[in-house]
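Q: How would the structure tokens look for this protein?
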Amino acid sequence: MPTLLLRLAGPMQSWGTKSRFDERDTDLTPSKSGVIGLLCAAMGIDREERAPVLELARLRMGVRVDQPGVLRYDYQTAQNVIAADESKVHPTTTSRRYYLADAVFLVGLEGEDQRLLERAHRALKNPSWPLFLGRKGYLPSPGVYLEDGLREEPLQEALKYRYLGRDWPKDEEGKDCESVRCLVMLENRGSSEGSLRMDQPLGSFAERRFGARFVVPHWVEVKRVPEPTPA
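A: Here is the predicted structure in token form.
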């Protein structure tokens, strides 16, 4: 079954699924709703459209953690915020917003619809709208598109793709390791075993309806790819 791979890397990214009011959370790995939203932006799918979102949501997702990043937060302010009971207007309120700094993830989306994955792959190279890592202003660097990211292999095998982290891990003697074990979080379609995630899109993004899915941890071994010798 084919798999589409995406690189999610940048100075800041945020994948909130439980945010309420003035505190905005982030999960420690990309959310499915966030990844599908990114694909919708690349493919030019309007937030009012329902069928294309559900088509993408049927893909099975896995995430490999190459660099977990550092959990941080910043403050933002909003002015003239109306109270819930409309009794007054707050002149200024502060909001704490969490994000991951310098994280790198490899995301895989597996499905039987080869043409859908091909369209998504082309769109990532030439996106219709700007792409963000979960929040406007959080730009991917380097880009999401991987030239060889459309793989003719199942999800877990595809997630053995080359390492995307900044520095290849070294052993106790300071030498490059021959391989590295990376944590992957795989969507579990067979049972309710695993961690619950409320990030499965159930309609258009304008509807803001999300259902449950379960993810289970696994490990994959990623082999070192030697740098080419200069001519």
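The first helix runs from residue 32 to 43.

DSSP finds four helices and nine strands in the chain.

Upvote if useful.
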